[in-house]
Write a structure and sequence with these properties.
Elements lengths: L2 H14 L8 H6 L2 H10 L5 E7 L4 H16 L3 E6 L17 H7 L6 H12 L6 E3 L6 H13 L2 H4 L9 H13 L10 H25 L4 E5 L6 H10 L3 E7 L5 E6 L3 H7 L12 H13 L18 H8 L7 E5 L18 H13 L5 E5 L3 H4 L8 H8 L7 E4 L7 H5 L4 E4 L4 H6 L5 E3 L12 E2 L3 H9 L9 H17 L1 E3 L3 E3 L6 E3 L13 H12 L39
Parallel strand pairs: 1-2, 1-4, 2-3, 4-5, 7-8, 7-10, 8-9, 10-11, 11-12
Antiparallel strand pairs: 5-6, 6-13, 14-15
Length: 583
């Protein structure tokens, strides 16, 4: 073993030491073997579900997908898994933060994580006795050769836009590469071409394997995490191209909740969701109290999986001194996203990317000394699981070494409360942050320039072109808050977004470390129909394409997932530990 391989192996072992399995199906099913085998046998004639788990090392994903597979089997579905067996030359399990770059370029993930990743996935899933398909089984020598040829022969500039028989494999290869480097763009990045070619090669192999398994198996639905990057983004492309239903999921924001979408990743689908899904829900005093209490809790993260400040500064005098801000002047807030995250194509964007939006907005406000622009860099740049390698503050500094007095930049490490500052603003401009849902709920006018989920809800001012965007800015300051009617509409959508689209699963408990949650099950009874309402909603959606909407408005209170599930078995639910950061 050479030095690079040794370093890569050591990094891989270090990472895997923090990714211990969270669910032991072998022990859990030991006392219920006959019952489980009967359920599996009964389900052979049911709807066919491919659980395209793919990356077995990510135990937070594997544990929930194994639970879904079990619950679906108990409801008569025939479930199978799709797992990478160390075939792909790149995937979402590697980043420059977690691997040795030179080793990755030379050997790919096989030098550090692949074997252990595959073993970890099989160890979790095998005790269920459900079929596990592996990637290499579904790749022919000719397809392997074709993938090698394309990955080596296309020019660097051609890869991002490359389509394979109508499949946007290049887009997902580029997104995977950006995530690997934890950046929003690749200009000037060492080894960018070699890494992009690896992700492109992996995208092609995924497409070939997915096409072949679908050729020979008549699946009704394919279910898998997230729906972007490599390989999950390509899996979705192939399934949709074949007319096979797709279900994507991801941990949501509230503790013990998850978000599921039909057809594509939630990054896309939440913007397309029809307002009819929520605008007619009865609006009660109880619903108003619940959503406003939760929105206030987001200032501190007490009810969420993810938070970024333990002790945020809210005192306006302290904030004013730290920032040099004068809150007596009309102010406009600007909230950024993490540049590398979810780099996908959104046709409604007014700008080609977030950085272009930020820089052009700064140029605009340089000519508007009558307004104070307060830019808040996203705290996740430094406090997220993946620390950004392209901070927005640095990118701004390259173009604007100094900013005029009317433009204030809050760095990501600042403890200044984003909410306290934005509450002082006349209006707030966003690109893709969910904070637009929260701010509009307290009457602050929000302007959307990118792919924020509050877009198209009849609540915000949405710009679909740069010209439209700057025309909106020309009318600032607005000099008023949103109307009571519009604010109530925003609160109703916030209730839908945070309490109905985020589906509680009380047996998934927060924990310290990695994974950020653990499953607490006492047996198969926990997963039967009628035991956990959120699980019923999810399984019905997967099997029958019903909306993934939790009927929170019909329940008396939503302070905790346990209280929202009167039908669940309290004896199977342990008290949650403290939550941890997760991205």
């Amino acid at each position: 073993m050479n030095r690079l391989e040794h370093i890569a192996k050591r990094i891989g072992r270090s990472l895997l030491s923090h990714r211990t399995p969270t669910l032991d199906w072998k022990s859990l099913l030991k006392a219920e073997e006959d019952r489980w085998l009967s359920a599996v046998q009964y389900a052979t004639g049911g709807s066919r579900v491919l659980m395209a788990t793919s990356t077995g090392r990510h135990q937070g994903l594997t544990s929930l997908e194994s639970i879904l597979a079990t619950a679906l089997t108990l409801r008569g579905a025939r479930v199978e898994f799709f797992l990478c067996d160390a075939l792909l030359p790149a995937c979402m399990e590697t980043t420059v933060q977690h691997t040795h770059l030179a080793s990755f370029v030379r050997h790919g993930p096989q030098a550090s994580v692949c074997d252990a990743c595959y073993r970890s996935g099989r160890k979790m899933l095998s005790p269920l006795g459900l079929p596990i398909h592996t990637y290499s089984r579904w790749i022919t020598p000719d397809e392997s050769q074709q993938a090698n040829l394309l990955a080596s022969s296309l020019s660097f500039d051609q890869i991002g836009n490359y389509t394979l028989n109508g499949l946007a494999v290049g887009e997902h290869a580029l997104a995977g590469t950006l995530r690997f480097f934890i950046r929003g763009m690749l200009e000037g990045v060492a080894e960018r071409e070699a890494v992009l070619r690896r992700y492109f090669h992996a995208s092609l192999l995924t497409a070939f394997a997915m096409q072949r398994i679908l050729d020979q198996n008549n699946y009704d639905v394919v279910c898998f995490h997230h729906g972007i990057y490599v390989p999950q983004g390509v899996i979705g492309e192939v399934a949709r191209h074949r007319g096979i239903r797709v279900v994507n999921w991801n941990p949501a924001y509230r503790k013990q909740t998850f978000i599921f979408t039909h057809g594509d990743t939630y990054h896309h689908k939440l913007m397309e969701e029809p307002v009819e899904n929520w605008e007619a829900i009865p609006w009660t005093e109880n619903a108003e109290e619940q959503v406003m209490a939760y929105l206030k809790s987001r200032w501190y993260g007490t009810e969420d999986w993810i938070w970024f400040h333990e002790d945020p500064t809210e005192n306006l005098e302290e904030i004013s001194r730290e920032l040099g801000a004068d809150f007596s002047k009309p102010s406009v807030g600007l909230l950024t996203n993490v540049m590398w995250d979810a780099q996908l194509h959104y046709p409604a964007n007014a700008f080609p990317n977030m950085l272009d939006w930020v820089l052009r907005t700064i140029r605009y406000f340089i000519k508007r000394p009558d307004l104070q622009l307060i830019i808040r860099a996203h705290p996740a740049e430094v406090r997220g699981t993946l620390r950004s390698r392209q901070p927005i503050v640095d990118e701004i500094g390259k173009i604007f070494p100094s900013l005029p007095d009317n433009i204030i930049l809050i760095p990501p490490e600042s403890q200044v409360s984003t909410y306290a500052v934005m509450m002082q603003c006349d209006s707030v401009i966003i690109y893709g942050t969910k904070t637009g849902v929260e701010l509009s709920s307290v009457g602050i006018p929000v302007i959307v320039a990118g792919e924020a989920w509050i877009r198209n809800k009849g609540i915000t001012r949405d710009a679909s072109s740069a010209e439209e965007y700057f025309a909106i800015l020309d009318n600032l300051p607005s000099g008023r808050r949103m109307s009571d009617e519009q604010t109530q509409r925003a609160r109703k959508y916030a209730f839908h977004f945070f309490f109905r689209r985020m589906i509680p699963l009380p047996f998934m408990e927060p924990r310290k470390g990695w994974p950020p949650y653990t499953a607490r099950l006492s047996g198969l009874d926990n997963l039967l129909p009628g035991r956990v309402l959120g699980l019923d909603v999810i399984c019905e959606g997967i099997l029958k394409e019903t909306p993934f909407i939790y009927p929170a408005e019909d329940l008396p209170e939503q302070q905790s997932p346990e209280k929202a599930h009167p039908s669940s078995n309290p004896s199977s639910i342990s008290s949650p530990d403290s939550p941890s950061l997760s991205v």
